[in-house]
Design goal:
About 20% of the residues lie in helices and about 35% in strands. It is built from four helices and ten strands; from the N terminus they run ββαβαββαβαββββ. The protein is globular, with a radius of gyration of 16 Å. Bound molecules: NADP nicotinamide-adenine-dinucleotide phosphate. The site of NADP nicotinamide-adenine-dinucleotide phosphate has 28 residues, from strand 1, strand 2, strand 3, helix 2 and helix 4.
């Protein structure tokens, strides 16, 4: 099973403000849904709450908390006590890819374990942001694909779908 991060971030790595997203990008939501459908998604408790404590349908939702018993009991919600626990649970689904979907705290802890980053780079300035994606270097991840999308009537910001692949550790 490979471990992938899915994130949308500005050039300054802004990802959230006040436990909410900073933009509305319907195409990015569609991309996210198509990518993760049928697969386990791993998130922090705050990200779960940012979705009004509703699970993403069609996916096993693994939510990480230091108090996992405080999480609601729902179909397709699996509580995990930490990242390692979440990954162990994801493996039991027999999927070939598990998706870490945020937020900032969980992304930071996941970088060392991640094989691939699906990054939607949102082209705009977000000065009120209070949550950020960790920076990473070209020696850790190489850009494998980038598709530019213009702003339009439904998307205030232009954005780029980027795929970053972990540099083969053995080749370093
Ligand atoms: N742009 C994007 O792609 C994107 C994606 C997702 C989220 N976001 C944004 O990110 C923000 C939320 O991120 P965040 O950093 O505040 O919170 P978060 O990463 O979603 O969740 C943090 C919580 O996860 C639990 N946790 C973290 N590390 C743990 C560990 N080692 N062991 C056990 N539990 C652990 C803790 O829950 P307990 O306190 O219950 O112990 C902690 O409070 C929101 O603004 C959201 O909209 C953006």
């Amino acid at each position: 099973m490979i471990i992938s991060i899915v994130v949308a971030a500005s050039a300054e790595n802004a990802i959230g403000d006040g436990n909410a997203l900073l933009w509305k990008l319907p195409n990015d939501m569609r991309f996210f849904k198509n990518l993760t459908w049928g697969m386990p998604v791993i998130m922090g408790r705050k990200t779960f709450e940012s979705m009004a404590s509703r699970i993403l349908p069609g996916r096993i939702n693994i939510v990480i908390s230091r108090n996992p018993s405080s999480l609601p009991v729902m179909d397709n919600l699996w509580a995990a006590s930490g990242l390692e626990d979440a990954i162990t649970l994801a493996k039991t689904t027999d999927c070939n890819e598990a998706f870490i979907i945020g937020g900032g705290d969980i992304y930071r802890q996941s970088m060392a374990l991640t094989d691939r980053i699906y990054m939607t780079r949102v082209h705009g300035k977000f000065p009120t942001a209070d949550t950020f994606f960790p920076s990473f270097s070209n020696s850790e991840f190489k850009l494998a694909d980038a598709v530019d999308m213009p702003a339009d009537e439904k998307h205030v910001h232009a954005y780029t779908f980027e795929t970053w692949e972990r540099v083969d550790r053995a080749a370093l």
